[in-house]
Design brief:
The protein has no helices and 6 strands. With 111 residues, it is an all-beta fold.
Length: 111
């Protein structure tokens, strides 16, 4: 399951039939939000904000091997610029950003 306090989103956030099903060996990750303020309290412009390299594994494609150790809900680590970004609307109509990537791009699971 996701580490408490790191990421908090549930698949039930999306209206029935309005989610996303990855095909083949793809996985969908909800990335941790980018840091908008530096540790010193300085507001960072969007062009210098680095993307986070971890997120919550939301959906797993049907051809990902069953013995693969990561499960939906796990917090996973991936390369900094991995995946293709998609945007889905939640039940309130807000945009939610996800990354779609091949399962082999994931580096590990945070315990």
């Amino acid at each position: 399951m996701a580490k408490a306090g790191l990421i908090s989103i549930r698949q039930q956030t999306f209206p029935k039939g309005k989610g996303f099903r990855p095909l083949r060996t793809k996985v969908v990750v909800y990335p941790a939000p980018r840091k908008e303020v530096s540790e010193g309290g300085v507001l960072l412009p969007q062009d210098v904000q680095r993307p986070e390299i971890y997120g919550q594994l939301m959906w797993i494609g049907p051809e990902v091997p069953a013995e693969w150790p990561a499960r939906e809900g796990d917090v996973v680590v991936f390369p900094q610029y991995a995946g293709t970004e998609i945007v889905l609307k939640d039940k309130e109509g807000e945009d939610v950003r996800f990354l779609v990537m091949d399962y082999e791009q994931l580096i590990g699971v945070l315990d």
